[in-house]
Each structure stands twice: as structure tokens, then as C-alpha cells.
Amino acid sequence: MQFQWYPGHMTKAKRQMQEDIKLIDLIIELVDARIPLSSRNPDIDMLGKNKARLVLMNKADLADPKKNEVWSAYFKEKGYFVVCVDARSRAGMKEIQNTIAKACREKTERDKRRGILNRPVRAMVVGIPNVGKSTFINTYAGKACAKTGNKPGVTKGRQWIRLNRQVELLDTPGILWPKFEDQEVGLHLAFIGSIRDEILNTQELSLELIRFLMQEYPGSLAARYGIAEEEDAPQALGAVARIRNCLGRGGEPDYGKAAAILVDEFRSGKIGRFTLEVPGRSG
Ligand code: G4P
Fold first, then answer.
1. 66 CA → ligand 1 middle, Å
2. DSSP character for 194?
3. What is the whole-number distance in angstroms between the Cα of residue 129 and the centre of ligand 1?
4. pTM across the whole model
5. Angle made by CA atoms 235, 238, 244, in degrees to the nearest 5
6. Quick check: CB of 62 below 6 Å from ligand 1?
7. Do 78 and 54 contact (CB within 8 A), yes or no?
8. Per-10-residue mean pLDDT, the chain, length 283
């Protein structure tokens, strides 16, 4: 499958990111817990060197819980602070708050030595499109947050959200660009729905998905659709079509309709919680 990306957007996003990074102490990088490698761009490591780093493995509610642990360990090993999170829920926000304090301890100590007290940590959220950046900012900042310095006529430049006494967040997230030139990355982004469906062949995608599930999570399709997994992928898709009553006029399976159902149910977690990548093996 071929995917497209526009170099013009990429250059602009990168330039903006370079400017924004100068203003902050901490980078909060969101990755998708189902594809922790394909949903990040390692360029952020270069752009953000010398900054404190927090990786939020978002959509952890849709990912394999065991693999969430494996990936957390992987990122910690790289020297990042890590929290698994569902950005739609406030439940994990306290842990994030505590982890931000830890990640920025060095900076706070340095400030203290210089006699600077209580200067808030300045942070920015970054990540590829659809990873949950806006959702996270809304949940984390909540309704109570006040935008700082946004009085008309006073402010120039970037806006900050004062989260609490310790943290200020840049109000617009930084957009990272996925590594589309790698076809496996493209495929994984398509699986989770982060590529516009108009440019995808859903049927082909669903067959890839069936192959993945049969190999890595045997029994999951049988549990959801009651189909026999010893069949090959096209046969399995046909079985889904029959079971879900996706049939043409002559009673033959409507593969297109079945594919759309399968892909949709996978993305929304109805088939189960899955992680598509393992450290060192894919991405
Ligand atoms: P972005 O700013 O990085 O582009 O992403 P955004 O916050 O718009 O989130 C993209 C989609 O992902 C949204 O769904 C959002 O609800 C969903 N989402 C964000 N975080 C999580 C999470 O931790 N778990 C799950 N399961 N979903 C999450 P949407 O389909 O665009 O809208 P809706 O379904 O919420 O209406």
C-alpha cells in the first residue's frame, strides 16, 4: 500500500517545533500505546535534546496491558519518564502530575541554587496527528485552567495555560510527522485509523489485520465472530460477512462491508486490546 505525505507541511511543522522548544523545559510526547514506534518520530530526540522528557503512552485502554508494561520499560531504559494513560479520563492525571515533578526535579533544584523560587515548569505537548494531544490537554487542563497572558493588547507570541502553581503548558500542541516512508509504519497507522480512509483500500487492510490477529492473538477473531481461524484471511473475511449478514443480492459475501466492520471494531477496541509492535522487532 502507498501512502502520501506533504513535505511542505513537514518543513513548516518542524520549524515551528524548533521555535517552541526553545521556550520550554519539558517535552510531553504522546505516542499511541498500540504502535509506540510507528506513532513517534525519532527526530524529536534531536530537536529535544537537553530537555526533560515525558512519554505518555496514550490510548493504553486499547492496547495489550502486558505489552504496555514492556513498552514502558523500553522507554524508561532510554531515559524518559513514562506514564500509560487514557487521555479521555481524569483518572491518570495525578500520576502525570507527580511524574512531571520528578522529570523536572533537576531544573527546579538548579533554579533554587540560583535563587529562583517557584518558577513554573514550562511544558509542551507533542505528537503525531490523532494521537490524542487535544484530548489530553483538555482533560489535564480541565475547565478550571486559566490561560495566562491572553489579555487583549498585552500578549504577543505564544499562549500558555497555567495548570497549577508548578506547570504551565503551551496552549497549542506540537505536531510531529510520522515516518511515512517506511511502509510498515504506514500500515500500522492505517490499522489504528490515523490515515485518512479515503486513501486506503479497506479490504486489503482488513486482510492484513486478520493475518496479524491470527498470528499474534490467536482466538481473538473466533471469540468475537465465532469463525474458524484455520481458514486463510479471505475465507475468514467471508465468514465475518456471512455472520454479520453482509451479503450481496445473490447471497454472496459482501467483502467490502465486512472489511469496514472488522476494521472499525478493531479500532474501537471491540475485538480486544492489541499492541501491534514489540520493541526491537517492528516499526
Ligand atoms: P490530536 O489532537 O492528537 O490530533 O488527537 P485528538 O485529541 O483529536 O484525539 C483523536 C481521537 O482519539 C479522538 O477520537 C479522541 O477521543 C480519541 N482519544 C484520545 N485519547 C484517547 C485514549 O486515551 N483512549 C481512547 N480510546 N481514545 C482516545 P475521535 O474519534 O476523533 O472523536 P470521539 O470518538 O472522541 O468523538
1. 22
2. -
3. 10
4. 0.91
5. 145
6. yes
7. no
8. 59 86 95 97 89 96 98 96 95 91 87 87 93 92 54 58 87 86 90 82 95 96 91 94 95 96 98 95 51
